[in-house]
Amino acid sequence: MNLISYLTCLSLPIIILTPVSSALADTAYAETLLSGTQTIQTQSVTINGITRYKLHGVTAGGVEFETRSGGAFAYGHYANGVEIFDGNNDNYWDEIIDNSSSSLFPTAALDVHWATEKTLNYFSDVLGVNSYDGMGGAVTANAHSYRLGSWEYQNGIYSFSDRSTDSNQLPWVSVDLVAHEIAHSMLDSLLANAHITSVPSFLAEGFPDVIGIAVRHYAKPTTATFEFADEIYFSGDASLRSLSNPKVDTYLSSDWYSHSGSYNRGGVLGKWYYLSAIGGSGINAKGFAYHVEGLGTDLPVNILYNAFENISGSVSVEDFANATIISAFNISETAGNSITNAWRAVGIESQQSSWQRTVIFIYGETVDGQDLFVRGGIDHAYANSILGRSCSNENVECAMPIQHNNLLNPTTSTWKYNDTYLDWYGPQQGQSSQANGTPLDWTTDYWPLGWGQQRSVDIDGFGYTPLNTYGSHYWMLDVNMDCSAAVDGWFELKSYVSNGDGWEPDIQQSDAPYSTGNHFAQCGKINVFVRGQDDPLIIRSF
User: Confidence band (pLDDT; 50, 70, 90) for 13?
Assistant: First the structure.
């Protein structure tokens, strides 16, 4: 079934994909408009007994591609442009002959030709895919078109335009724009081949943007950024879109509802890719803290592409996130965790994820200058004898992976940086040496008038929170935790007061899954304890 028979891309350029005859290719140099001098593939032909060179090449993987001038797709019909020849006839492309007298930037065709080859090479080298359709489909790219952007998957049609109503713009021929348009056909092909009836809306423009930026990093690694199509602007701080800071970066946030359209909402996938590739920490538009370890620019694209093998029918946002996570964990645990965390960062909670929000409250009165920390995980002796885990500071097999949800408290936020495990070992590598474990935030169930300006966890990172229904001096840990590391959902913890009483004494919890001197909490729930008291006040669901 042809799912996308006609799409109009009003703010983006287009290419035309049509079969071309098989021919041997020559290697040449081209002085492109936007990317300097680059190596391109050309074809030598004999015309009236004279050897001429035209923009026609064959990739290392055997995919033929050609760049012409002037053609454009329009409402079910298209006209191939005229062939483009080397103006000096020496196969060094510093000027061209294309019979397109209306072109203000004739060498822009060289950018299209070079970028087309780079895109096809990326598909082959990084994704292991033979052209946009996986079947070696030939590509004819029409430069100097009169249409800014459209494509038709059924006929495989694209074009690129020199013309823009914005006087601040050069021709739309940057490598990310060229790759973006070819990626539209790749997406259409993936959807048709997988018999998918619907997918999340952010894929429509988000997927081509991701491919565009990935190809740019592949083709121009020393200058590539995550600003989409910034190279077409005369002004250095302008771009069509930003993947690192898009208008919409969190699913179902207030920005999601106030900015409709596939370009804006594609920013959710763009931000997911940016974090998956580069990594980062922060607080998303829903107020949840995140930390993502970057995987580089290529691996997330492989994961994204391979996810289409695991989906069919009507695919929800969560379904698609699950598919990428399955794809990532098939590669490695590190990749799986990073992809999971990146989805959480953009507001999408995957059903595949073992990560669950977990809250710990521990009662303990303190004075100024004292703070409360916890250490925890799984008992080493139990883990070794029963679980077969050999635990140490290096392998953290007895630690609980965490992501802090509260980074607003200026005192504790510095201690939470690089605190990615609830463990027994003290400060992690890169964590503050002043952190005596994992820091908690002081909370209360009410704020009397006599205490002055109300402080709250939602605004200040400490103070009043509706989660605390127990009283003052309940210190809170609010994290996302990987419950797969727990023992039937249980993990241990013990508190420590800095500049004060230090470690709490051993206790004996009656409902513990095995015997130690520590508190036992349940992953994915709210757990309430009192320092030095054997049994918890309560363990409940959210």
Answer: very low
DSSP 307-337: GGGG--EE--HHHHHHHHHHHHHTT-HHHHH
Specify the pairing of strand 372-377 against strand 438-439: antiparallel
- Asked if residues 153 and 188 have their Cβ atoms less than 8 Å apart, the reply is yes
CA dihedral 447, 449, 452, 456 (to 10 degrees): 20
Q: Is pTM, for the whole model, over 0.90?
A: no
In eight-state DSSP terms, residue 535 is S
CA angle 404, 272, 171 (to 5 degrees): 145
Q: Distances from the Cα of 143 to the Cαs of 55, 98, 211, 482, 504, in angstroms?
A: 11, 10, 20, 51, 72
Dist. CA 431–CA 373, nearest whole Å: 14
Instruction: Indicate the residue type of 504.
Output: E
The gap from C-alpha 275 to its chain's centroid, in whole angstroms, comes to 5
How far is residue 122's CA from residue 502's CA, in Å, rounded to a whole number?
A: 56
Q: Which stretches of 48-107 are assigned E, i.e. beta strand?
A: 50-54, 56-58, 64-69, 72-74, 77-79, 82-83, 85-86, 92-93, 96-97
Give the three-class secondary structure for 168: coil
Task: Assess contact for 350 and 343: CB atoms under 8 A.
Answer: yes
Lowest mean pLDDT among 74-78, 457-461, 512-516: 74-78
